[in-house]
Amino acid sequence: MPPIPLLISAGEASGDMYAARLATALKKRLDVDLFGMGGPQMRAAGVDVITDYSEVSVVGITEILSHLPSLVRAMRRLVSEAAKRKPPFAILTDFPGFHLRLARKLRPHGVRNIYYICPQFWAWRPWRVRIVRRRFAQALCIFPFEEAFFGGAGVPTKFIGHPLVGAVRPTQTREEFCRQHNLDPLEPIVAILPGSRHAELAQHMPIIREACQHIHEQRPAQFVVAAAVHSNINDLQSGWNPALKIRVVENETYSALAAADAAIVSSGTATVEAALLDAPMVVVYRVTPLTALLAKPLVRTSYFSMVNLIAERRVVPELIQKDFTPAKVADATLRLLNDPRAREELRLGLAEVRKRLGPPGAVDRAADAIAALLSAVAGNT
Description:
This protein has 381 residues and is α/β, with parallel strands linked by helices. It has 17 helices and 13 strands. The chain has helices at 13-29, 40-44, 61-65, 68-85, 96-106, 129-135, 144-152, 174-180, 198-218, 233-237, 253-259, 269-276, 289-295, 306-311, 326-338, 340-356, 362-379, and strands at 4-10, 32-38, 48-52, 89-93, 112-116, 138-141, 157-159, 189-193, 222-227, 245-250, 262-266, 281-285, 318-320. A 7-stranded parallel β-sheet has the order 3-2-1-4-5-6-7, sandwiched between helices. A 6-stranded parallel β-sheet has the order 10-9-8-11-12-13, with helices on both faces. Helix 10 links the parallel strand 9 (222-227) and strand 10 (245-250). Helix 1 (13-29) packs across helix 17 and helix 9 (198-218) packs across helix 15 (326-338).
């Protein structure tokens, strides 16, 4: 028999990572031909990437408008390829603005949809869960409270746990990391994870650079910027005060977080990675004022950062929009550097978050669930 075609799609760096790990797990279980949208990690996992996620990876309501032509092109390519290869299922990873529409366009071609890494509709436009119920055969949830949310809305739901649990670990000790990057292990280290999208870096980096200047003036420190995939390294290296000790590292995010005494982290998957590495953090985020104005009525949660949402309380400081200023970032970071009790209290909260993320093996559980769906389809034909 020929391999089973499966469409698998991710629209950003974190989704590329999650989908790549799932692709590897599926290939161990099944003879599958994986194709779709993704990035370098999915390519490395053997996925035939027909559309690179860099074409569609945008954030913010107003920012999407300028990217509409590339979004439409990517959608057409995926639907056209699905019509040719006729996969029984499409595995769509988060990225709801694009994937909900893709799911609708795939159904007339006989493709059933699986949501892997469900969108955070419990926090943002919760009424869209009805669309998931209509268009998806299965939702694979990574947070325990999502099972009740999606299942209560009539979506066939399975809690698999978080894919990062058991997969996030540094490759170097603090001493080894410092030796490699000419840092002093006896001096404070502040890790900076500014985001992966161009729009995020444009909004975040000017504030972060000024905040680091304030920090250094009150407590001399070393700053390590962890570059995301597709980041422009030259942009991350430029604009700093020459008096600051700055290191920009690639593919060393986990070692940088593990070595850090404090971290400034863009809200998103990176906050979960920092929590798993027990890194005391300050969470930051900013979009354009117009996007913030349009989005405000749609938010249904008291917290913005994933860590606080999982804990259902304020574990880490989060500085969002107008609160994301150089002075406030510096003050929150200095508190973590200077106050051992503040660090310990935060780390107790991070331990609570880690417990709620479930046991290791989420990707394997997702692959098993998809294999079961494929088996059921084969048994009915």
